[in-house]
Write a structure and sequence with these properties.
The protein is of the alpha+beta class and 327 residues long. The chain is built from six helices and 15 strands. It has one domain: HIT family, subunit A. It has a ten-stranded antiparallel sheet with strand order 3-4-7-9-8-13-14-12-11-10, with helices on both faces. Strands 1-2-15 form a three-stranded mixed sheet.
Length: 327
């Protein structure tokens, strides 16, 4: 029988359909490589720095660089006007899309990826993000910063070279508002801390865990092989976390992708960092979501907002624990 499970972070129900559970081999790797224009150099490779705007942050590597953050040439959010709403009619409301939109090239390797980062670079990645979130928090027009990684064409990537995007928004998006409400109404403390404790006791959905990080296939997974990566130290904002916790989360993110790739091949995925809004002072615990793009969101999901997952998270966790991940 199918089972409804409540996502305590959003208050939404998901449907686990165990009878339709698919084998890991039933999920195909991502489509062929993103098309490139012949003769056009990759703007994110070393030696092509003139193709981007001046960097906002650089991690040096001798006479060159290991990582760099540059403004997006085609920003979705830009400017410092702040969030001013304009009513054009009874149902027509608009506002300037002020804020910031940056590209984080976290590796100089064109054929690299999160799973190929060494320990030092995985840790450094989070230190760069910390600096950018500190800068965004000081910008009055930015209320929330969303960090994402889109890997593969199906996940929305438009360039092959591995990179993340850092978007400073003039408003707090609905997904984060839902999570804020969930933290506020959760009885007994922090919903993430409680999730960590419960999953470590159960063990059936834990992919890996150490003194700093826990990675699980969450009980309420809305999609096959969805993962939740959580720092064990309670901290509201990513930029306020201790270095050892951030370093461990960098390695944990890398290892999560390694497990997926070892089990399923080079699949498309989205990675999303959820930290509290910059002026938030209530209960929150920053964390990272990893959503493989293995199925299509159909009419039922779009019409109701209720996700159907044909891969029970317990089976997903068992599959991911069993794979060998090269050091």
């Amino acid at each position: 029988m199918s089972q409804l499970r409540l996502n305590p972070l959003t208050g939404r129900w998901v449907t686990i359909v165990a009878e339709r559970a698919q084998r890991p081999s039933d999920f195909a790797p991502r489509s062929p490589e993103i098309e490139t224009i012949p003769g056009r150099p990759c703007p994110f490779c070393r030696g092509n720095e003139e193709a981007t705007l001046a960097p906002l942050d650089t991690v040096p590597d001798g006479d060159t660089w290991r990582m760099r953050v540059v403004p997006n040439l085609y920003p979705a959010f830009d400017g410092s006007s702040g969030f001013v709403v304009h009513h054009l009619g009874p149902v027509h409301v608009t506002a300037d899309a002020s804020g910031a939109h940056e590209v984080f090239v976290y590796t100089h390797e064109h054929e690299g990826g999160l799973d190929q980062l060494n320990d030092a670079d995985a840790a450094e990645m989070l230190q760069v993000l910390k600096r950018r979130l500190v800068a965004h928090a000081e910008a009055p027009e930015v209320r929330y910063t969303q960090v994402i990684v889109n890997h593969g064409r199906e996940a929305g990537a438009s360039l092959v070279h591995p990179h993340a995007q850092i978007l400073g928004l003039p408003f707090v998006p609905g997904e984060i508002l839902d999570e804020e409400r969930a933290f506020a109404r959760f009885a007994g403390g922090c919903v993430i801390c409680t999730t960590i404790e419960a999953e470590l006791v159960s063990e059936e959905r834990v992919i890996f865990a150490d003194d700093e990080v826990v990675c699980v296939a969450p009980f309420w997974s809305g999609a096959p092989f969805e993962l939740l990566i959580m720092p064990r130290r309670h901290e509201t904002h990513l930029q306020n976390a201790e270095r050892s916790s951030l370093d461990a989360m960098g390695r944990g993110i890398r290892d999560s992708v390694k497990h997926l790739k070892a089990a399923l091949g080079d699949i498309a995925f989205n990675l999303g960092f959820h930290s509290a809004p910059h002026e938030h002072a209530g209960q929150f615990h920053w964390h990272v979501h990893l959503w493989p793009q293995l199925t299509t969101v159909a009419g039922f999901e779009r019409g109701t907002g209720v996700m159907i997952n044909v891969m029970p998270p317990e089976k997903a966790a068992e599959t991911l624990r069993a794979v060998h991940t090269p050091a």
